[in-house]
Structure formats: structure tokens, C-alpha cells
Amino acid sequence: MATQKTVALITGANKGIGFEIARQLGAKGITVVLGARDEAKGVKAAEALRAEGVDAHAVKLDVSNDADVAALPGWFTERFGRLDVLVNNAGIAEWASDDVGAFRKTLEANLFGVVAVTYALLPLLRESPAGRVVNHSSVLGSLTSITSAPGQFGDFVNPAYTTSKAALNGFTVALAHKLRGTRVKVNAAHPGWVKTDLGGDAAPLTVDVGAQTAVALATLGEDGPSGGFFHLGKPLPW
Ligand SMILES: NC(=O)c1ccc[n+]([C@@H]2O[C@H](COP(=O)([O-])OP(=O)(O)OC[C@H]3O[C@@H](n4cnc5c(N)ncnc54)[C@H](OP(=O)(O)O)[C@@H]3O)[C@@H](O)[C@H]2O)c1
Fold this sequence. Notes:
By secondary structure, this protein is α/β, with parallel strands linked by helices. It has helices at about 15-25, 40-50, 65-80, 100-125, 145-150, 160-180, 205-210, 210-220, and strands at about 5-10, 30-35, 55-60, 85-90, 130-135, 185-190, 230, 235.
């Protein structure tokens, strides 16, 4: 028997913005599953949320590990009989290098990992009364923003990272198109420049604000958009 509660998977949720997304979705009464490539870190993070009253669980998930990804649909079916929300948050940035190795590593996590996890879970999401996919992108993947405001992003315009997030935006648009006419909505989120291990200490935003765009897109109503790119309620250009 499927649980009556909405169930969400957040990838890369053992720390940073992903952990905060789990906390905020959990505070809305959603059952949250924290994906973490280090199982112990995921269990610890879920325990911390349970101590706050959140119905939190952990699943071992390296988005680049075929076995981890293949096990996901059975894991959700066995425990909850459903999956409603997928937040593809896990991501990396190789700021220091942009050789082909950095491209391979970055696209493996930021694009192929997202594609693999999403396709594995799409059958469950399609069964949901309100399936939602949120791809954690970045304004650094917005080619229009980068080219219309030269200099604004400085050294953060890293070829491998920008290419990975622009490609993720492409996946977002194409998947939303493919799923038009279904109950599944697919959108991309820019969290802002957020103080995390990835964003660095100079970032102006806290994770509390950084999580808000993804949380809003994960809980969109039936009349909400699909195939868009947003930051704090405002559309971003591609
Ligand atoms: N912070 C910003 O300013 C900013 C701006 C724009 C977009 N974003 C995006 O927001 C997302 C979250 O970033 P963040 O700032 O919270 O970064 P973070 O603190 O470095 O957290 C990244 C998370 O992703 C996980 N991860 C990385 N590769 C993974 C893999 N192959 N499989 C599973 N998990 C993996 C990490 O796990 P480990 O702990 O095991 O490393 C960690 O849990 C990323 O997609 C990032 O590109 C961030």
C-alpha cells in the first residue's frame, strides 16, 4: 500500500543547499529522502532532520553509480509505494581547471547523473498525482545572462561548469516538452550565489534563501509552469 504522504528525493542532500531543501520540504509535511553518495553522511543528515520533527530518510546515491541508480525505483516502491518529487541537486564545480578531464568529470555529475536518476524514476513520477522534477542549475548556465552582462560573473564563468549547466537547461526544456500533457512538471532552478562548500565564503546568500527556489518549484500547483528556468519566483533567460 502506498503511503498517503507526498514523497520527495533530494540528491546530494547530506550538506549545503540540498540539505536545506530537504529541511524546508520536510517542514511542509513532505516525506523527504536524502540522497548521499557517502551513506554514513546521509544517515547522519536524515537523523538531524528527524530530530527537528521531519519525516526524513536516507538512501545511498552516487548519481554516477549505475548500481545505485538502478536500485532507486525498487527502493521507493518497497518503502513508500510512490515518488512525487525529484530534486536533482547534486552537483560539482571544478573551478580550478577546464581541461577535457574536468569536462568529463563535471558533465558526469551535473548532466549524466541527472539524466540517469530522472529516467530511472520517471515511471514512478508519472504515477504521482503531481510529479515534479527540479533541476538545480545556475545562472552560470544561462548563456544570455553571461553574454549580456560581460564581467559580472568574473572567473566563475568556468567552461566545464557553464557547459554542464547549459546542457542541464537543455535537458529541462526537452524533458518538459516530452512530458507535456502529463501531470509531471520539469523546471530548472538557480539558487542564487550561496555560501556553501561549492559557492565559497564570499557568497552573499545563506542556504535558507538558496533553497527557496527549488522548494517552490518542487511544490508547484497544477497551474504552475513547466519547462522554465527560475530564481526566487522570477524567470531567468536561457
Ligand atoms: N552554492 C552556489 O552558489 C550555487 C549557485 C548556483 C548553483 N548551485 C548548484 O546547487 C547545487 C548544490 O550546490 P551546493 O552549493 O549546495 O554545493 P555543496 O555544498 O558542495 O553540495 C553538493 C552536494 O552534491 C553532492 N554530490 C556531488 N557529486 C555527487 C555525486 N556524483 N552523487 C551524489 N552526490 C553528489 C555532494 O556530496 P559530497 O558531500 O559527498 O561531496 C554534496 O552533498 C549544485 O548543483 C550546484 O551546482 C550552487
